Amino acid sequence: MTIPRFYSTASTVSARLTSLLKNRDLIKTTSYINGKWASPTNTTTSTTTFTVTDPALYPSPQAELATVQSSTREDFQHAIAAAESAFASFKSTTGRYRSNLLYSLYQAMLDNKQDLATLIALENGKPMSDAMGEVVYAASFFQWFAEESSRITGSIIASSNPTSRILSLKQPIGVCAIMTPWNFPLAMITRKLGAAIAAGCTTVIKPASETPLSALALAHLVENAQFPAGVVNVLVNDDAAMVGKLLCEDPRVRKISFTGSTRVGKLLMQQSSSTLKKLSFELGGNAPFIVFDDANVDKAVAGAIASKFRSSGQTCVCANRIFVHESIYDEFAAKFVEKLKSDVVLGAGLDQGVTHGPLIHQKSMDKVVSHIEDATSKGATLLLGGSKRPDLGDNFHDLTVLGDVTPEMLIFQEETFGPVAPLIKFTSEDQVVQLANDTEVGLAGYFYSKDISRVFRVAEAMDTGMIGVNTGAISEAALPFGGVKESGFGREGSMYGVDDYMVIKGVVLGDV
Question: Which residues form the active site (predicted)?
Answer without folding.
Answer: 282
